[in-house]
User: Which sequence fits this backbone?
C-alpha cells in the first residue's frame, strides 16, 4: 500500500529526508529559474496569442502539481515554445486572439491535454508516444521553430504580421512592410543583437575574465532578463508607447482565480485532436529532457508517472487561468545546473512567479513586445536543425522522407497536418519494410546439419522437397506476401511434393498469418503438396496447438530442419552452385 | 520487351495456343455463369439502390477488360454483395437512391475505384492491402452480411425499410410493420424457403438420384434462376403489380452508352475515401479467390497485375453505365467447376449478359423485388461467420478485439467507420506488441562461450559489466522502451561500469533507434558507464558505419558476446541461481 502511494505520489519518497542544505540548493535554483521564467512566460503567452498574465498563471500552480507527482527532480515545467505555437494554431479556428472566448478556449485546451495525459498514465498508454518517431518529432520541432520565428518577425518590425503558415506569413509581412515602426525596429533588432551576442560570446568572455564555468553559464542565461529590464526602462523613460511601440500593457496584479473551464461540448470536441497532439509532443519532449538530466545523477524516471504528473499539471493550469504546459529544455538544464536537488525547487519557482506577479506587473506594462519577440526568436533558433534532414536521409530514405514531410507540411499548410502525416508515414513505411520479409530457399551443406541459402552456398537440394526460411515474425503486414511467395514457389517447382517452412526467425504468428498458413495448407493440398513446419519456437508452438491448424496440417511439425530433411528428402543429389 | 508486354497483357501469353476444345469448355462455363449472373446483377443493383440495368451493364464491358489484363483464368468479375453495400453507403450521402444524380455518382465511384486500383498496380502499392488484416476483413464481411440481410427484409415484407445501420433498420421495420403487403410476403418467404431448401438438400438429393456430383452442384447453383423464372411468371399471370407487389419494372433494352462520368471535383473528393475502401476490400477478396482457384491447377496469380486488371475493369464499368465490380467468390467457383480454362470464358459471359439484356428485359419487368431480396439474403448468409469471433479471440485477444470492433461498429454506426477503426486497431495493437520487446540480462554459462538469461540459468555475471540481449529489431515503436529499460538498469546496478548490448536478434535499427542509442550512449557517459555492442549483424553494422555513432560510442563493438566478456569482465565470480 505504502509502495503504491509512493508510486503515485513520489513526493512522499524524498520529503521525509529533506534537509536544510538541500533547501538552500533548491532555493538558489528557484531564484535563477524564476528570473529566466518571467520573460519566457510573457513571451510564450504572446506567441500563443494570449494575454501576458496567462503565461504567468501557467507558471504557478502547474509547477506545484508537477512537483508533487513527477519523478524528475529537475524538470522545470511551464509554458514552452512548441506547445504555445500549437495552442495558437488550435485556438485560431475558434475565436479571435485575445478575446475572452479565446482565453476560455485556452483553459479548455489545457484541461483537455491534462485529461489526455492523465488517462494515458492511468491506462499505461505511454507507448502511444512511440508513434511519434524521432525523425517526425525532430522534423516537427524544426518546422515549429521556423514558424515561431516567422510569427515573431511582425513584432520586431512593429507591424501586425500573422498567418498560419510560412507562405501566408511572408505574404503579409511583405504587404505591411510600408507600415513598419522605426522605433520598434530599433528595439527589436537591438534586443536580437544583444541576445545573440550574449549567447555566442558572453560565456566565453566571462570565463576568460575569471568566472567559474557554471556561473558564467548561468549569467549568460540571464541575458533575456537584462534585455527585458533595459528595454522596459527605455520604454518608460522615453514614453515609447506614444511613439507607436507596442507594449505589453496593463497586466492584472494578483493571483489567478480558480474556476472550472467551459463545459461546452462543441469546444471540447473541436479541441480534442489538438489536445492529443500537444499532449504527446509535450510528453515526449519532457521525458527526453528528464531522462537526460536524471542519467547524470543515476536517477530514475518513470514514464507512466510522468504522464500522470504532466496531466495533473495541465489540469491545474486549466482551472487556474493558464495554458498547456510541459517540461522546458533550457529551463530544466538551468534548474539542474543551478543545483536543484528536489522538486521543492519547482514549488519555490512557483512562489517566485507569484511574487513577481504581485509586485512587477506595474513595471511589465512598459515592456515592449519586440523584446519578447527577440527572446522567442533567439530561444527557438536552437530548435531548428536543418542538417538533421541530410543525416537522416543518408541513414535511411524512409525515415528521411517522413522527416521531410513533417518539416514541409507545417510550413506550407499548418501545424497539425504535418505531424499527422508524419506519423502516418512513419507507420506506413515501417509496415512496408516488414511487409516483404527476407526469405530464402535453403539446402543442406553436404555432410552437416546446417542449411543455408541456395543462392549463396554450395548445398544439396531435393526436387521433391523445398525448404523455405522466412526471416521475420509473421503478422498481417506480411501474411499475404507469404501466400504470394509460397504460391509462386509452387508454380516454379512442378515436381515439388513437400514444402517445409523453417521458422527459427519467427517470434510470433498472429491471427492473420495463421489464416494465411491455413490457406497455404489447403492450396498446397489442392496442388498435391504437403506442408511441413520446422524449428517452430516454443511460445509460437504453444499457441498453434490451441488451434485446429496442427490437425489440418497435411504434413508434420519437425523439431529441426535436419529432421525434416532426413524424413522427406528422397534423392538429395543435386548440388547447387551459387550464381 | 515482349516479356514486359505479356506481363501487362497476360492475354497474349495464352491466346496464341487457344484451341477449339478449350473454347467449348469456356463457352459451357460462360453459359452457366451467365444464368447465375443475371439474377445476381439485378439483385446487387437493387442492394446498391441503383436501377436494375446498372447491374447488367457492370457485368459486360468490365468482364472483357478483366479478361484481357487479369492473371486468373477463372476469376468471375462483376457486381458483388459487399461492394454494393459500400456503394449504397457512399452514395446515400450524395443523392436520393434511384435519381439520375445517384446513378451518376455510382459511375464516378466505379471510375475512382478503378483509378485507385490502377495507380496502386502501377506504383506497386499492393502492400497497402496488407493493412486490412484477416480479422478485420473477416469481421467486416460478417458485419456487411448482417447489414445486407437486414436491408433486404423490407423487400421481403413489402414495406419500405431503409436505414444506415442495424438499429435504424430494426426501428424502421418495426414502425412500418402495419403496412406490410401479404402477397409480397408470400412471394418473399416462398423464394427464401425454396432457395434455402435447394442449398441445404438439393445437391444431396440429386446425387442420391444418380447425378454426378459436379452436375448436382451446378444444378443447385441454378436455383436462383428457377426462383426468378417462377416468380416472374406468377407476377405476370396474376398481375401481382396491381396487388401492390413491388416489381423490377421496365428495364431499358439495349447496350450501355459509353460516356465519361461527371468531373465535378466535389463529388470526386466526397467519394474518394469510399472508393479507396471499396478498392482495397475488393482487391483482397479477388486475389484470395483467384489464388485459391489457381492453386488447384498450380497456376500463378500476380497481385500487381490483378490491381491493374481490376482497375481497368472498374474504369470500364464507370464509362459504360456500371457500378464498382470485383471478383465474386461463388461465381468464380462455378466458373472453375463448370470447366472454364481461360479468360475467354469471361468474355463469353459478357456476351451472354449482353444477349440477355437485349432479349429478356421485357420479361424482367415482372420480376418481384422480393425474389431478388431472397437471393441476396441466401447468398450473404454464407458471409456471416460469427464463430470466427470466438476462434480469433481464443488465439489472440488483440486480433479478436480488432475483429469485434470491425463487426460492431458497422452495425451500430455505419460501414466505413467500422473498417477504418478496425485497420487502426490492427496497426495500433501490432505496434503495441512490438513496442515492448523481450529483453534479458544474460550471464555466461560457466566454462562455455554461451550466454543465457540470468533469471533462467545458473550463470556467471560481473558487477562491473552488465550484458543485455534484446530480442527484436529496434525501431521507433520500441526505441524509447529501450531507453527506459537501459536507464532503469543504470539505477538498479550502482556498480556498473560497462553495458553490453547483445544484438544477435536485431535485424534492423531505424533512425529513431539510432538516436535512442546515441542518447543512451551520452547518458551512460554522464553516469560514468561505457556502452558496448556485440554480435551486430552485417547489414546493420554497414549502416551504423556510415554514421558518427561508431566514433561517439564510448565503448567497443565486439564480434561476439564472449569477446566482450573476455575484454570487460574483471571479477566474474558471482554465480546466480534462478529464482
Assistant:
Amino acid at each position: 500500500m505504502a509502495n503504491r502511494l509512493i508510486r503515485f505520489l513520489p513526493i512522499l519518497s524524498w520529503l521525509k529526508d529533506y534537509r536544510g542544505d538541500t533547501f538552500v540548493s533548491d532555493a538558489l535554483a528557484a531564484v535563477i529559474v524564476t528570473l529566466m521564467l518571467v520573460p519566457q512566460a510573457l513571451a510564450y503567452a504572446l506567441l500563443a496569442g494570449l494575454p501576458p498574465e496567462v503565461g504567468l498563471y501557467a507558471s504557478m500552480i502547474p509547477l506545484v502539481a508537477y512537483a508533487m507527482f513527477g519523478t524528475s527532480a529537475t524538470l522545470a515545467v511551464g509554458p514552452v515554445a512548441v506547445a504555445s505555437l500549437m495552442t495558437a494554431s488550435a485556438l485560431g479556428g475558434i475565436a479571435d486572439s485575445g478575446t475572452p472566448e479565446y482565453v476560455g478556449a485556452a483553459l479548455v485546451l489545457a484541461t483537455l491535454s491534462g485529461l489526455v495525459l492523465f488517462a494515458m498514465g492511468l491506462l499505461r498508454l505511454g507507448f502511444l508516444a512511440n508513434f511519434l518517431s524521432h525523425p517526425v518529432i525532430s522534423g516537427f520541432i524544426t518546422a515549429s521553430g521556423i514558424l515561431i520565428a516567422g510569427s515573431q518577425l511582425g513584432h520586431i518590425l512593429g507591424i501586425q504580421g500573422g498567418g498560419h503558415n510560412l507562405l501566408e506569413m511572408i505574404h503579409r509581412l511583405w504587404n505591411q512592410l510600408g507600415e513598419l515602426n522605426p522605433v520598434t525596429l530599433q528595439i527589436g533588432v537591438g534586443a536580437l543583437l544583444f541576445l545573440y551576442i550574449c549567447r555566442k560570446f558572453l560565456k566565453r568572455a566571462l570565463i576568460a575574465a575569471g568566472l567559474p564555468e557554471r556561473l558564467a553559464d548561468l549569467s549568460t542565461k540571464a541575458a533575456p532578463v537584462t534585455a527585458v529590464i533595459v528595454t522596459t526602462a527605455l520604454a518608460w523613460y522615453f514614453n515609447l508607447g506614444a511613439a507607436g511601440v507596442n507594449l505589453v500593457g496593463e497586466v492584472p496584479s494578483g493571483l489567478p482565480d480558480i474556476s472550472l473551464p467551459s463545459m461546452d461540448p462543441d469546444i471540447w470536441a473541436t479541441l480534442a485532436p489538438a489536445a492529443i497532439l500537444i499532449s504527446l509532443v509535450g510528453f515526449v519532449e519532457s521525458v527526453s529532457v528528464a531522462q537526460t538530466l536524471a542519467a547524470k545523477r543515476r536517477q530514475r524516471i518513470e514514464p507512466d508517472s510522468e504522464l500522470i504528473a504532466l496531466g495533473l499539471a495541465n489540469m491545474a493550469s486549466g482551472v487556474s487561468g493558464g495554458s498547456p504546459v510541459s517540461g522546458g529544455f533550457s529551463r530544466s538544464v538551468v534548474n539542474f545546473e543551478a543545483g536543484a536537488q528536489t522538486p521543492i525547487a519547482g514549488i519555490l519557482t512557483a512562489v517566485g512567479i507569484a511574487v513577481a506577479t504581485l509586485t512587477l506587473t506595474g513595471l511589465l506594462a512598459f515592456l515592449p513586445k519586440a523584446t519578447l519577440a527577440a527572446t522567442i526568436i533567439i530561444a527557438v533558433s536552437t530548435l531548428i536543425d536543418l542538417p538533421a534532414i541530410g543525416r537522416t536521409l543518408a541513414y535511411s530514405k524512409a525515415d528521411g522522407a517522413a522527416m521531410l514531410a513533417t518539416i514541409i507540411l507545417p510550413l506550407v499548410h499548418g501545424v497539425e497536418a504535418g505531424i499527422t502525416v508524419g506519423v502516418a508515414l512513419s507507420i506506413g513505411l515501417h509496415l512496408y519494410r516488414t511487409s516483404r520479409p527476407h526469405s530464402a530457399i535453403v539446402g543442406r551443406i553436404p555432410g552437416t546439419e546446417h542449411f543455408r541459402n541456395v543462392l549463396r552456398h554450395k548445398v544439396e537440394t531435393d526436387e521433391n522437397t523445398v525448404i523455405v526460411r522466412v526471416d521475420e515474425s509473421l503478422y498481417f503486414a506480411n501474411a499475404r506476401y507469404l501466400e504470394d511467395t509460397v504460391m509462386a514457389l509452387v508454380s516454379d517447382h512442378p515436381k515439388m511434393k513437400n514444402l517445409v517452412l523453417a521458422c527459427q526467425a519467427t517470434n510470433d504468428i498472429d491471427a492473420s498469418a495463421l489464416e494465411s498458413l491455413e490457406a497455404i495448407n489447403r492450396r498446397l493440398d489442392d496442388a498435391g503438396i504437403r506442408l511441413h513446419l520446422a524449428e517452430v519456437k516454443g511460445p509460437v508452438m504453444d499457441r498453434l496447438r490451441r488451434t485446429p491448424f496442427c490437425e489440418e496440417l497435411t504434413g508434420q511439425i519437425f523439431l529441426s530442419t535436419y529432421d525434416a530433411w532426413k524424413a522427406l528428402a528422397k534423392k538429395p543429389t543435386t548440388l547447387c552452385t551459387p550464381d
Chain A touches chain B through 72 residues (CB under 8 Å). The two ends of chain A are 67 Å apart (CA to CA). The first helix of chain A runs from residue 2 to 8.
